[in-house]
Amino acid sequence: MDALWVVLPLLIIAVALVLRRYRPGWYWVTFGVTCAGVRVLARYRSVMEACGLTVPPSRWRLALARLTDRPAPESRSPRILRIRPTRTGLVLRLKIRSGQDAFDFSAASDRLRHSFVLHAVTAQEIRSGVVELRMTGYDVLRDVRMPAPGPASGVLRVPVALREDGAVHHRDYRSVPHALNVGATKSGKSVYQRNLVAGLAPCVVALVGIDCKKGVELAPLAKRFTALADNPDTAADLLAALVQYMDRVYQVIRAEQRVSADLPDAEITADIWDLPEHLRPTPVVLLVDEVAELALAANKKEEVRRDQIVTHLVRLSQLGRAAGIHLEICGQRFGSELGKGITMLRAQLTGRTAHRVNDETSANMAFGDISSEAVLAAIQIDKDRPGTAVVGDSSGGWTRIRTPHTTLRQAVDVCNAHAYRTPQIPELDPFRPVLPARVLSGTVLP
Ligand SMILES: Nc1ncnc2c1ncn2[C@@H]1O[C@H](COP(=O)(O)OP(=O)(O)OP(=O)(O)O)[C@@H](O)[C@H]1O
């Protein structure tokens, strides 16, 4: 019996150490979260003081202490409103003191991380006077495991990667209609795009692809694609057809506006999302892999084609949002050296993701006009961590993300399972991928 009391704790410690080394996620939920919670609460005051996140007592408290002959009150730490454990860390919600702001906590995030012995700390103001510290217990980006996806919704918002604070990064087409994804070769752009396609496959959306690497990335996923182009000539025609489709969607919106205008109190729609469901055209996500291939021109004829392509892309990016057409452009570089119109197009691509880049100029193509820190972070991405990227967030800040390593086989399986959802768009019919008869007859069901 006595031996059991010696062996049992040793066994528990051994299990904890093994889990911590090989299964940090399991370690966190079994042992880590409790240890970290106790540590954070026990050290809270001293850490806040050491990190310079306390405020001196107010004058009236000092005066009161003097009047009542008590010792001078201590400086005060932000008040803990809530501490919440998560799958990957802890979330500490703080009521900050007057004179403090969220930036003080962001600036101290490295010191907080060391002091609380956690992997990462990020600070975000969630409402006036309230800051949330998201603390990650372990390196969640080492081996990305996404939580099980919820049921597909009609909203174009798909989980695509994990953020370094353990939260899921969503690509939300309604709030960020168009996006640019840059990165050096082998940095993980195609896997990012693959995750996007797999995330979009269960949604009500028409996927349109341009993959000038002869279709090697997107063609295997063709069963879920409404249209595909695998060379610049077809891409130019496909984009022209997409512009035509956009014009037709605008006519539908205008017609509905005329009807609503005659009805008192009826809402007047300005985009497809306000149209009644039975009238709403299918939204479209256009994925372009290796955009530089579209911009190359070796002779006059190719120059004309290039200008057509860029003009169509600029038009789609400027007018597409209301028609539910979204652009997802991916390439190794995306700067003015690609020719006329590229900087105009880039200005419309408000969503920015930068995988590992080889030089500052490439990082500037994604974040130069947004954040110099993000530029630095993109250059510093480790070569041994493909799939890691820096992504701009809705508040104008940025964060590190990493996609799960979805294989082409897994993505193909998802696309095949949802092949029956592939909508047809008459304008894009000439570009419909050639599929085996089995799928065209609609017999592949999930
Ligand atoms: N999230 C990830 N986790 C682990 N490995 C990854 C991840 N993303 C990509 N990789 C690995 O990195 C390699 C390169 O990825 P990918 O093909 O997506 O790069 P790329 O940027 O598209 O390259 P290129 O521009 O040459 O096509 C892949 O073979 C894959 O094994």
Going by CATH, what is the homologous superfamily of the largest domain?
P-loop containing nucleotide triphosphate hydrolases
Overall residue-averaged pLDDT value: 86
Range of helix content: 25-40%
Shape: globular
* Category by helix and strand content: alpha/beta
Count every helix, treating DSSP H or I runs of 4 or more residues as helices: 14
Our measurement of the CA-to-CA distance between the termini, rounded to an integer number of angstroms, reads: 56 Å
Q: How large a portion of the residues is in β-strands, by DSSP E?
A: 15-25%
Largest sheet: 10 strands, mixed
- The CATH architecture assignment of the largest domain turns out to be 3-Layer(aba) Sandwich
Q: How would you spell out the order of helices and strands?
A: HHHEEHHEEEEEHEEHEHHEHEHHEEHH
The total domain count is 2
Protein name: Plasmid transfer protein
Transmembrane segments: 26-42
InterPro entries: FtsK/SpoIIIE/SftA, FtsK_dom, P-loop_NTPase
Binding site for ATP: 183-190
How does this model look, in words?
- The protein has 446 residues and is an alpha/beta fold.
- The chain folds into 2 domains: 23-136, Threonyl-tRNA Synthetase, Chain A, domain 2; 157-440, P-loop containing nucleotide triphosphate hydrolases (Rossmann fold, 3-Layer(aba) Sandwich).
- 39% of the residues lie in helices and 19% in strands.
- The chain has 14 helices and 14 strands.
- The strands form 2 sheets. It has a 10-stranded mixed sheet. A 4-stranded antiparallel sheet has the order 1-2-4-3.
- Strand 13 (388-392) and strand 14 (398-402) form a beta hairpin.
- Helix 9 packs parallel to helix 10.
- The longest helix is centred in the middle third of the chain and has 30 residues, at 232-261.
- The chain is globular and about 85 Å long.
- It starts with a helix and ends in a 6-residue tail after the last helix.
- The relative contact order is 0.11.
- Mean pLDDT is 86; it is low at 438-446.
- Adenosine-5'-triphosphate (ATP) binds at residues 183, 185-191, 332, 386-387, 402-403, 405.
